[in-house]
Design brief:
Chain lengths: 199, 145
């Protein structure tokens, strides 16, 4: 028995926790929250670019997951299921947010509203390069925010979170081809923004 | 297709590399613990806020969608039974309407008449004593001369 439990994969561990949660074990659900919060935090934060919004969305995501965990039949992994809840809720939130911004008083153009929070650059070796790198990253953040919500979601999952096309397709209920074409389009858009920086 | 791409920050590879460098944004330290306690608090307040009806509906939903599928099967059987009963009642009603329109006395009416007949007679006899004197027995019909 103990040898069996030692060999369980993360997916199997999730399955066990899900089964326990379905039987009303709240501690098991807490373990799922603790396990998936950091991963989902990165995903939602890259899409919203705001820590408070990320926090609120994540609370809603887990509340929804808790309410419907009994309906989860294991057709996909818990990871895919919780990711799709998070992505869909974030996309809905972003839609609402952009609608509110459009109707806000004293609105100025497309950019207005919340300011993108700078993301700390990952360690660099050269100090001269560091300045231009930081600038480039800032530019990249701005460019990312200019993408549509759907394109930003795909870029976040593929390029930043390193998820495979098939997984993204499952989460967004799209074909792999659509995911690839969205990625290609998004990369082109980002490239165009950064080209301006190069000139 | 094999177009040469510039190797600057504008090239697709570079864009992807930069995006990867952004990396996963970890939540601040201690965030998960606070998050969890806030989650518990929210759950508790949501439970208090929800009405008894909401809870009942949720219980029904949970029972229906239980992974064993037992609830769903029972519910489907129940719905099927109700539909069957409805169909039988509807068919009966339609048959009565047809009988009425064709002039025949529907069985329910017939039965009612037969049942009420003796009491009607009794009432009639009680209200007409002369008639009673002449015809003490209802079966005693005078012979025609």
């Amino acid at each position: 028995m103990s040898a069996c439990s030692e060999q369980t994969s993360p997916a199997q561990e999730d399955q066990i926790l899900v089964a326990r949660s379905q039987n009303g074990d709240t501690a098991a659900f807490d373990s799922l929250v603790v396990k998936f919060t950091p991963k989902l935090y990165g995903l939602v934060y890259h899409m919203t670019d705001n820590h408070e919004d990320t926090h609120d969305i994540l609370q809603e995501v887990f509340a929804k997951a808790y309410r419907s965990v009994r309906r989860f039949r294991g057709g996909s992994s818990f990871y895919t299921w919780i990711y799709s809840i998070a992505v869909n809720m974030t996309l809905n939130f972003l839609k609402k947010r952009s609608r509110n911004r459009r109707f806000a008083l004293g609105e100025e153009g497309t950019g207005g509203g919340q300011k993108a929070e700078p993301i700390e650059p990952v360690a660099t070796d050269d100090t001269v390069r560091e300045v231009s790198n930081r600038e480039l990253k800032e530019r990249l953040n701005v460019a990312l925010q200019k993408l549509s919500n759907e394109h930003r979601a795909v870029v976040t999952m593929f390029d930043i979170q390193g998820m495979p096309h098939a997984e993204i397709a499952k989460i967004l209920s799209l074909s792999e081809g659509t995911v690839r074409s969205r990625l290609h389009y998004a990369h082109q858009q980002l490239q165009n923004h950064l080209e301006d920086f190069r000139k | 297709m094999n177009r040469e791409e510039p190797r600057g920050p504008g090239s697709e590879n570079e864009v992807q590399k930069l995006l990867r460098m952004k990396g996963l944004v970890p939540p601040p330290e201690g965030y998960v613990e606070n998050f969890l306690s806030e989650f518990h608090e929210r759950q508790r307040s949501e439970l208090l806020r929800r009405s008894a009806r909401g809870l009942f509906v949720e219980r029904i939903g949970t029972w229906l969608w239980h992974p064993s599928g037992r609830g769903l099967k029972l519910a489907a059987a129940g719905v099927g039974g109700v539909i069957m009963m409805g169909a039988v009642v509807q068919l009966n009603r339609r048959a009565n309407t047809l009988r009425e329109s064709s002039g025949a006395i529907p069985p329910s009416t017939e039965a009612g008449l037969i049942e009420s007949f003796p009491s009607m007679l009794r009432q009639n006899n009680a209200s007409d004593p002369e008639k009673n004197a002449k015809h003490p027995d209802k079966n005693d019909v005078p012979m025609p001369k």
